[in-house]
Design a protein that fits this description.
Length: 736
């Protein structure tokens, strides 16, 4: 019974009935820390450090050293220059330094050598590939839909290239977010030409096109082939992927937990979830040409040549049907060759570029160059979004309307409801990138920290909620978030800030019993974390050090050949169409085809991300197949052969000099005396073994690099096997 009713029936004095409203209500719970707007804290001063071997370089050190001082822990000393140069190259480029690059930094007397090195690496075009690959993990990037048929996404790579360019351009993160969520609504445009600038797009139009390609973020989700049989369910599952991914990537929240009921731990209701879906209710995936109207007409002009290819193929199929697989007569053999030549000639006649616009390539295989992006449904086709009881599509309840999550809207002082459905994504994007948003800047600086240190200040990078890990350094996280906004959301400036700290430059090979007892997992950063390279970085490093890495950027995914034991796992081999040009087989790992149902085997062995949803942190396992790949893979053996030959060409074939050069190439540091003795003994042992099996060597080795050909086969074999062993050193696959 209501309290007021009870009091009135007791006939208590009126003064007691005049109880202020809400006085007996449950006290309002404070907002979770991550829902509160970050305020810039003062930088603490650590006064009780017991030694002065670690210098204070910037505010980051103040927060980290203060946390260590509270636990009576000293920081590790600075790493030596050989470690630092390798750390910087892999962190920013995903590639090792060459011996000359390492030597230049180590031997430099310039007091600003480190700062200049960081600036130089940030200006490299390969920086965008390294950090773009990190973002693709978060964006659940793949070139196919997964499930049984694993349907191919022919334009997914355009989003990948957009991401690489955005990082290289140091696109402000708030703009990067806005483009992906609502590039088409914030910067609507088309590719019509300015009559005064024939065949030239303005810079403004190019930027707007790039922004629209950013919405390809929402076209990458997994897709069941047969879902096309139920349009209503397909729409619902698509919206579910979009909202869950938006929440995880930009808000760092498990929004998807509110799909079936109010979130059990965070202040997110089921109403919030379906109102977010309503924001996207007018959106749909579309393919848009990347050519101007004049270029499209050029393509149409040449279309009869595409018809010629089709007709030539038909002629060949008719010939096959007529001959029925029997032995051919000389006349039929001649006819077969003529038909095959006709097909080849028809293909070769297809134009590679538009005749009137020399710099605009055509893709005859794919048709008119296009991108898959977000567009809008016609108004009469707009679906109504309902709340769903227990998340079941068959159990709709009340209608949902476009709105922001209630608690976060209140925290930022804005109205929850937004106009929609057209233009609602624009309002969402602008709200996400408010300077005072509680989560957007925090989530991104935490990702940057994680990708530099191996662990975020919040270890659960996609979950800043109650069930995620709390921040180890909450004030540092807020300081970084506010600093990020003050620096106009510049990611490169945050790299400089982090890498210029003493915290980043600490050694990793440091520990005392006190450190291991008080903080065994190094949560408070008393040393640098040793990290294993990701699968793509290991692939890149092997080929880079062998001198075979093709550094071409962008374009359609490449497909390297696979040995029989690896390709056997693929049900339909045509799902792995090997690139015809051998030089494409050694492209950087991020350009290799990403099939959801058939990951590149080497990447899968080294813990490639699961692409069915946003991957905040890659697993790091140690399993036997990893050693089997580096020891037995034909690909690695070929790279060992190239490394042996390349080193002989540079350093000669004297044992000591050759070994020292291999060491410097692979590990970016000079070999020690003890290592040199062990390596020489191994090389001698391998030579002895090869001599005993000399009769089998020619067949096993295949064609040798030119610099190894003057050597006898046992000697060349030993050098190749030595390089193969060196590729299996732990130090090669780890960053100290």
């Amino acid at each position: 019974m209501h309290l007021g009713t009870i009091l009135s029936r007791l006939c208590l004095p009126a003064i007691l009935l005049a109880v202020p409203a809400g006085i007996f209500a449950k006290p309002k719970e404070p907002l979770p820390w991550s829902f509160q707007i970050p305020h810039r804290p003062e930088v603490p001063v650590a006064e009780k450090l017991k030694h002065g071997t670690t210098s204070y370089r910037n505010a980051i050190d103040g927060f980290v050293l203060a946390a260590l001082e509270q636990r009576d822990l000293d920081p590790a000393p600075a790493a030596d220059r050989h470690v630092l140069v390798r750390r910087a190259y892999f962190d920013l480029l995903g590639l090792p330094p060459t011996p000359d690059q390492a030597r230049a930094f180590v031997e430099s007397a310039d007091p600003d050598a480190w700062l200049k090195l960081v600036d130089e690496l940030l200006e490299s075009k390969h920086y965008g590939e390294r950090w773009g690959r990190h973002w693709l993990d978060v964006a659940r990037y793949a070139d196919s839909g997964g499930y049984e048929t694993d349907i191919y996404y022919r334009f997914a790579w355009r989003y990948r290239d957009y991401v690489v360019k955005s990082f290289n351009d140091d696109k402000p993160y708030n703009i990067f977010v806005q483009e992906q969520v609502a590039g088409d609504e914030i910067w609507p445009d088309n590719l019509d030409l300015d009559p005064k600038r024939v065949y030239q797009l303005s810079d403004k139009k190019r930027r707007h096109l790039e922004a629209r390609i950013g919405t390809g973020f929402y076209t990458l989700g997994p897709l069941v082939h047969e879902s096309g049989l139920d349009a209503r369910r397909l729409r619902h599952e698509t919206l579910t992927d979009w909202i869950d991914t938006t929440g995880a990537v930009f808000l760092g929240l498990t929004v998807g937990c509110a799909r079936c009921h109010d979130h059990k731990f965070d202040p997110l209701s089921q109403q919030d979830y379906y109102d977010l879906q309503a924001i996207f209710s007018s959106s749909t995936q579309v393919e848009v040409p990347l050519l101007t109207a004049m270029e499209v007409n050029d393509w149409r002009q040449h279309y009869p040549r595409i018809i010629a290819v089709s007709e030539a193929r038909t002629s060949y199929k008719l010939f096959q049907a007529r001959t029925g697989g029997r032995a051919l007569t000389p006349e039929e053999e001649t006819e077969k060759q003529r038909l095959l030549v006709a097909i080849a000639e028809a293909v070769l006649q297809l134009p590679e570029k538009a005749g009137s616009v020399p710099n605009s390539p055509f893709d005859s295989l794919m048709g008119i160059p296009a991108a898959r992006v977000l567009g809008h449904e016609r108004r009469e086709l707009l679906p109504t979004i309902f709340m769903l009881e227990r998340g079941e599509l068959s159990n709709p309840t009340s209608r949902a309307t476009p709105a922001l999550p209630a608690t976060l809207a209140t925290a930022t002082g804005v109205k929850r409801e937004i106009h929609g459905p057209y233009g609602s994504r624009k309002q969402l994007a602008l709200w996400l990138t408010r300077k005072d948003h509680p989560l957007t800047a925090r989530v991104m600086v935490n990702r940057l920290w994680q990708w530099h240190f191996g662990r975020g200040i919040v270890a659960t990078a996609n979950d800043f909620g109650a069930m995620g890990s709390g921040p180890t350094h909450p004030k540092l996280l807020d300081w970084l978030a506010t600093e990020f906004v003050q620096r106009d959301w510049s990611i490169k400036q945050m790299h400089r800030l982090i890498m210029n700290s003493s915290t980043y430059r600490m050694a990793s090979d440091f520990a005392t019993s006190a450190h291991l007892e008080k903080d065994p997992s190094n949560r408070y950063l008393w040393r640098m974390n040793r990290r294993r390279l990701e699968a793509e970085a290991i692939w890149d490093a092997v080929h880079f050090t062998a001198g075979t890495l093709n550094l071409q950027m962008g374009g359609r995914p490449v497909v390297p050949p696979l040995p029989e034991d690896e390709i056997a796992a693929l049900r339909e081999r045509w799902h792995w169409p090997v690139s015809a040009d051998p030089s494409q087989h050694t492209r950087r790992g991020m350009y290799i085809l990403v099939r959801r149902n058939f990951p590149f085997p080497m990447f899968e062995v080294f813990d490639a991300p699961v692409t069915s949803s946003s991957c905040p942190v890659r697993d790091v396992t140690t399993v036997a197949p990893q050693a089997l790949w580096t020891l037995n893979s034909p690909s690695v053996f070929e790279q060992a052969k190239q490394l042996a030959g390349r080193t002989a060409a540079m350093a000669g074939t004297d044992d000591a000099e050759w070994i020292a050069s291999v060491w410097l190439t692979l590990l970016s540091r000079p070999i020690t005396e003890e290592e040199s003795q062990e390596a020489a003994a191994l090389l001698a042992q391998l030579t002895e073994q090869a001599t005993a099996n000399q009769d089998q060597l020619a067949t096993a080795l295949g064609e040798l690099p030119e610099s190894l050909r003057p050597l006898d086969l046992p000697r060349a074999t030993a050098m190749i096997q030595f390089c193969l062993a060196a590729y299996n050193l732990n130090e090669f696959s780890f960053i100290d």
